[in-house]
Amino acid sequence: MDSALPGSGLPTCSVNISINGENRSLDIPPWVTLLDILRGPLELTGTKKGCDHGQCGACTVLINGERVNSCLKLAVSLDGVEVTTIEGLGTPDNLHPMQKAFVEHDAFQCGYCTPGQICSAVGLVKEGRARSRADIRELMSGNLCRCGAYSNIADAIEEVLGAEGAQPYKEAAE
């Protein structure tokens, strides 16, 4: 494996992971996280390393459609799963509806947390549990934005929820 991985040259395990629709056979040290695999040898740098402790959500990806902090997931535990990163959601010419809503609602400032926010928001919509703006805020609470774009992020998610057929709602005041 690539020398960008910690512990290269030591014993490895073989795993097969579908990443953004592409099957990958990887020989990796058993202690390497999915985040380090993505950003290192696979060069999928859209997923960000923030705290590296599962506290900020910058590294959120979708595993079999569910949102997961990739910094906490050992890559060897993912044999046979489907991983979707921000690069797998859409392209500049064909944005995912959530990516488009984030752009339209200016739901980012510095942009560092945005890939994790978008992946988490896509998972949130799929979960189908958000029934109010308060639900959106609670369900997105694992994704931090140091710039404070939370209102715009919630607006973008509300738009996609409405487009997905969820019952429209509006709270009187925020």
Automatic annotation (TrEMBL):
<feature type="domain" description="2Fe-2S ferredoxin-type">
    <location>
        <begin position="13"/>
        <end position="89"/>
    </location>
</feature>
<keyword id="KW-0408">Iron</keyword>
<dbReference type="InterPro" id="IPR001041">
    <property type="entry name" value="2Fe-2S_ferredoxin-type"/>
</dbReference>
<keyword id="KW-0560">Oxidoreductase</keyword>
<dbReference type="Pfam" id="PF00111">
    <property type="entry name" value="Fer2"/>
</dbReference>
<dbReference type="InterPro" id="IPR012675">
    <property type="entry name" value="Beta-grasp_dom_sf"/>
</dbReference>
<dbReference type="InterPro" id="IPR052914">
    <property type="entry name" value="Aldehyde_Oxdr_Iron-Sulfur"/>
</dbReference>
<dbReference type="Pfam" id="PF01799">
    <property type="entry name" value="Fer2_2"/>
</dbReference>
<dbReference type="InterPro" id="IPR036010">
    <property type="entry name" value="2Fe-2S_ferredoxin-like_sf"/>
</dbReference>
<protein>
    <submittedName>
        <fullName>2Fe-2S iron-sulfur cluster-binding protein</fullName>
    </submittedName>
</protein>
<dbReference type="InterPro" id="IPR002888">
    <property type="entry name" value="2Fe-2S-bd"/>
</dbReference>
<dbReference type="InterPro" id="IPR036884">
    <property type="entry name" value="2Fe-2S-bd_dom_sf"/>
</dbReference>
<dbReference type="InterPro" id="IPR006058">
    <property type="entry name" value="2Fe2S_fd_BS"/>
</dbReference>
<keyword id="KW-0479">Metal-binding</keyword>
